[in-house]
Design brief:
The structure is a homodimer. Chain A is an all-alpha fold. Helices cover about 65% and strands about 0% of the residues of chain A. Chain A has a domain of about 130 residues: Helix Hairpins (Orthogonal Bundle). In chain A, helix 3 crosses helix 5, helix 12 crosses helix 13 and helix 15 crosses helix 16. At the A-B interface, helix 14, helix 15, helix 16, helix 17 and helix 18 of A face helix 14, helix 15, helix 16, helix 17 and helix 18 of B. The complex binds potassium ion (2 copies).
Chain lengths: ~450, ~450
């Protein structure tokens, strides 16, 4: 144990494991399952992992299988996972020791990627405040809509609003309906607040703070903020246009909707791979080309230090600029007048290729364990690894071993790249700099 | 045209285009098609591209669709493609101008990756001699076996032996039987010479020459040779064990064979993804997990400056060592006591990720053009891009637009990475060296 604590990078996976264990224990209580008796251990483990890792894949129907107590546990696990176990651990450390040790600070830095250690305590509080008020605002809008538009009683509407707000902002992908949020496919008053919460949550706090501070001076934005804002827009457009183009005539998805509703659904599904995981159309009915495009968008994921998963936008765009420089024979990789250090390039490369390796190994394992075709299994693997939670619907029917593979993928996807990045951050060495340099966050 | 010639990197794609055009023209002659009348242009274009790019995907049955003249044209195109249009162009330049201009030399260097320009002419001749004698030896063994074991007449046996020897050594994947070489699945006298020729051809001439020179002193081998020899062995073992494990009980493939024949077929198919493309078992009957594993092996491919395709063994292993160094926080990437320059790392990264991008774009396009599921289309895409030629059998039934996509993938796969690498090689700049350094070939 002391050995472990000497390596701060190991605190993050251990904290996640503890949260998953506690969550599994709580979900196994008879009070958690509707009808009583408690769920099988694998169901509790899968659900707890999916909640803590803010994934949203489910083996049972969240709406009917769990009691309000069970759903409350899931919501709490989502909140803990989204805010970051590490952040809570740091706060706990603060309460216990009344001081921020270097070790705690380094871990916190690795998770939230804030360069200035002295601002850490303030950042922790600001993150919590921003999260709280944003979630309250979205919850209020949703609750009003549920109450006015759907005649829900106030207590029900507030509970529904709060759960879906927390699930959206934390990119968790859980919903209190058996068909995700498909019932609201044509209701912009539900779709747009949820999509906004997912998009903002997937941008990440470093970018949000910079945007709040420098919103009117884009010239001052850091490379990391530029990539994240630009990348979010580009991937949203590609995702929405892809869904529109591929699904326009598909009777199982957009085909039965009018043109404005087609656009609303396409925008909603354009946001979700980064990595919200809710759906207003049935992914089990999607055309294979839409699923393959979504595979790529999910794998790329959202912003660094956000509630989103995937290899992250900055990783993807740094690699794209590396290739650009290579093709044009330029010695340095330059993004908006800043040279990207070779250390950052190597980190981006490692994060991306380790991701490919995990997804490949996961898909191959699921192929040997089941008789489903490769397409849907790849989709489920990437959805788990990138903690997205979109599904063609085959997860509940998987054999136990395959479910455990998904549990492992969700855990590795949420913790693995962080661990690697932390290990790298703690051991990085000084290099010679030839130009003013900046290190966008990768992984 | 003068502009083009000023950029030597463009000579390679243009030479390939010329060879494909000439081949298409020859195959369109009435004398090429059995029964006369000449084939449709797309069939001739597809076959010529597949032959020049030594891929082996076919839209018609090579054995019955073409006359001996047509088959001879295919064999010649294979030989030209395998030896390298560039090499022939250089020789042509020699005959015309009696001197080796710098431009020709640089192109030849980029293709055959020989660092010492002054040895270029000697290398061209040694490559031709090695190729010729090796092909003659394999052809003789095959011809003897065809004559003695299968009662073919001498002329037929020699023709069959020569064609399959050329096809094997050049990793072309063409066969003169309607079912590839499945009829010889249990005959080691046919399988082993073919597998040997494919394996040796896929190792590449720089490595072969070094092995001939330094066979008894492995301590003197270059990093490039070590990676290629080690990688060939590892991927062969993974491929063979994978086929054995996944197909052992499959009645459509290994299930009906005895244990020794199972092993023979597994070894044969373990060699073929790198990138021979012949098959003694039916890939249309393979389990999906075998196809996914083969996807990965085909994508990695064979040795640099060989007749094999894919991103190349050195690219893959350099990237693996980069990740290893990154995970362990080491500033330098070291392979057997040699530091790998960051320029080489960047080349490897670019080659691999451009390959992923091409395969992704190809698969997505084929999905929109056809109604086949993603698994087989991904397999066909990688097989074309990595110039392997293995197929689950759907190529002939594809619509014309999809066939053109495969033509483009074969061309890009054979020429694209070379072009990129050449562009990089011609513009690389001096860097500061901290350690004795070596640049293994990537791409
Ligand atoms: K999610
Ligand atoms: K081939």
């Amino acid at each position: 144990m002391r050995r472990t604590l000497r390596h701060p990078a190991r605190i993050v996976p251990i904290a996640f494991l503890v949260a998953i264990a506690v969550g599994t224990g709580l979900l196994m209580l008879p009070a958690a399952r509707a009808g009583g008796g408690g769920p099988p251990p694998l169901t509790a483990l899968f659900t707890a992992t999916s909640a803590v890792c803010v994934t949203g894949l489910t083996v049972v129907d969240t709406a009917t299988y769990w009691t309000p107590f069970g759903q409350g546990v899931i919501m709490a696990l989502i909140q803990i996972g989204g805010y970051g176990i590490m952040t809570l651990a740091t706060l706990l450390g603060l309460l216990v020791s009344r001081r921020l040790g270097l070790r705690t600070r380094l871990v916190a830095q690795a998770e939230s990627r804030v360069d200035d250690l002295s601002q850490l305590r303030g950042v922790l509080i600001r993150v919590a405040l921003l999260m709280f008020w944003f979630e309250v605002a979205i919850a209020a809008i949703l609750a009003l809509r549920f109450a006015i538009g759907y005649g829900q009683r106030p207590a029900t509407a507030i509970w529904q609003g709060a759960f879906h707000s927390v699930s959206s902002f934390n990119n968790a992908g859980f919903a209190l309906y058996s068909d995700s949020v498909m019932g609201f496919a044509t209701d912009p008053w539900v779709c747009l607040p949820i999509a906004l919460a997912v998009a903002v949550g997937a941008v990440g706090f470093p970018v949000l703070f910079e945007l709040v501070r420098e919103f009117r001076r884009p010239a001052c934005w850091s490379v990391h903020t530029r990539i994240t804002v630009f990348g979010t827009g580009v991937l949203l457009a590609i995702g929405a246009l892809g869904v529109l183009l591929f699904e326009w005539t598909n009777p199982g998805t957009l085909g039965r909707l009018g043109v404005p509703d087609k656009v609303l659904a396409a925008v909603f599904q354009g946001v979700m791979p980064r990595s919200g995981g809710l759906s207003t159309v049935d992914y089990g009915q999607m055309r294979p080309e839409t699923l393959v495009l979504t595979d790529a968008l999910m794998f790329i994921g959202g912003g660094s230090a956000s509630t989103a998963g995937g290899i992250k936008l900055t990783t993807f765009f740094v690699l794209a600029f590396v290739i650009w420089a290579e093709i044009h024979g330029e010695p340095d990789v330059v993004i908006s007048r800043r040279r990207i250090s070779s250390a950052t390039q190597r980190q981006a490369l490692s994060v991306a290729l380790l991701g490919v390796a995990f997804v490949f190994a996961g898909t191959l394992t699921l192929l040997t364990l089941t008789s489903y075709p490769p397409g849907p299994l790849l989709f489920e693997t990437i959805s788990a690894f990138a903690t997205v939670g979109l599904s063609t619907g085959l997860t509940p029917a998987l054999p136990p071993a395959a479910k455990l593979v998904l549990v492992l993928l969700m855990f590795l996807g949420r913790v693995g790249t962080i661990t690697v990045a932390t290990g790298m951050a703690l051991r990085s060495r000084r290099r010679l700099y030839r130009l003013p340099e900046e290190r966008p966050i990768v992984g």
